[in-house]
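Good morning C.,

I know you're traveling, so I'll keep this short. The sequence:
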Amino acid sequence: MSYDMILKQSLKLHNDGQLDEAEQLYRQILETVPGHPVVLNLLGLIAQSRGLHKQATDFFSRAIAQNPQSAEYYFNLAWSEERSGQKAQAAEAYLRALQLQPGIKEAHNALGNIYAGQGKTEQAKEQYNQAALLDPGYIEPLANLAKMEKDLSALQKLAEQHPNDALIPYYMGLLYRQQGNTAA
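The C-alpha cells, ready to paste straight into the viewer:
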C-alpha cells in the first residue's frame, strides 16, 4: 500500500473515531517518514483527545520543529500546555500562533483566560475584545470578559440574548456565590 493511501486510510479512521487503528497507521507512516509534521500533529491530537497532554505536547513540538510556520501546530501545543498547567508556555504558543495567523478567535479567547488568571486584566480584556471582533457571534469571550469584570448585568443581558448557552448561567452562578461569600 502506498504512503498516500495509508495516510488517506488513517485520516478516514481518525475522522470515524477509530483512534487506535488510525494511530497504528500514523506510526507506520512515521517508520518511513520519521519527521512527517502532519502525522506528528495528528498523533498529538489523538493523545490530546485521550487527555495525554504531555505526550501530545511532545508530538506537537516535533511537528513544529519540522514546520515552524504552522499556526495550527502552535495552537494545538498551546491547548495541551494549558491543560497541563503550563500557562506561561501556553501563552507563548498562543502568541506564536497569532503571529502566524492573527484571526484565530479561539487563541485570543484562550490567551484572555490565561491573562485573566494572572491578574493581567487589561491584556485579558484586549484579547477578549479581539476575539469578539473577529466573530461577533462568538459569545464565549464576551461571557469571559463579563465574568472577569464581575459584571452580572452584562451576563444577564448575554443570557437573554443567548438562552441556550450554558456557559453564561454557569458564570452567573459563580458570581452570585462569590457575592454571597463576600457578604457573609
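Safe travels,
E.
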